[in-house]
Amino acid sequence: MLDFAGKRVLVGGGSRGIGRAIAAAFARAGAQVSVSGRDAEALAETRRLTGGPVQICDLGDAEAVRRHVAAAAEAFGGLDIVVNNGSAFATDDTPEAWDTACRIDLMGLVNTNAAAAPILTAGGGGVIVNIASISAFHPTPNAAPYGAIKAAIVHYTKSQALGLAPHNIRVNAVAPGAISFPGHFWERRKVEDPDHYQRIVDRIPFGRMGTPEEVADVVLFLASPLARWVTGQIVMVDGGQELA
After folding, report:
1. What is the pLDDT of residue 184?
2. CA–CA separation, 29 vs 225, rounded Å?
3. pLDDT digits (tens, 9 = 90+) for 84-132
4. Is 146 a catalytic residue?
5. Which of 146, 156, 181, 197 is catalytic?
6. Beta strand segments in 23-145, E
7. Which residue in 168, 184, 223, 233 has its CB near the most CB atoms, within 10 A?
8. R_g over Cα of the chain
9. In the chain, what is the greatest distance between 2 CA atoms, to the nearest angstrom?
């Protein structure tokens, strides 16, 4: 178990799934954790797991994002770690879906980091972990906005890592493959389109989909002193899915 006692963590998009698993893992490791999301009921369950503050926040609303960052920093007396997990999972190749993906997946992350970076700098440095996807690394005709925006996050992660290094801030990203949890897209697809679900599983060398906790473990590693000399990197957490 990594020790994050005394660390102050902000998780954007933590009401369920990967974000909730990340927030809960940091809390179990001793950190203070502030979480944002759009679903009040789901956030209440996250709060039960973390014991920390939660805030209703539409990541597509720049002012709401700034308020969450400011509130977390005020509650904790600063920030040490920022995790950007929010996604609208916009898949349709339409102007509306592209706008949603840009506002929530990309600009939600950009606005969070812009608000948090001065706070991290004032505290002597810190860590940012962005959640990308293996969809950033191959064509995604059935989810063009999602894949393209995740590719932009990969590029932005590397650019920001270089730009923030002089301020002692490390920036990395995790790129999950197919991750399944109750209520998620893949659980629905398992029921609604079992053939497609099985085709995806068959492409994963380990023969199963991943869990949110397996992503969270890698996020905690990247945020820990064990990764103190790691920045600008994209770590795939996919059980070898992209290899196949």
Report:
1. 76
2. 14
3. 999 999 999 999 999 999 999 999 999 999 999 999 999 999 999 999 9
4. yes
5. 146
6. 32-37, 54-56, 81-84, 126-131
7. 223
8. 17
9. 52
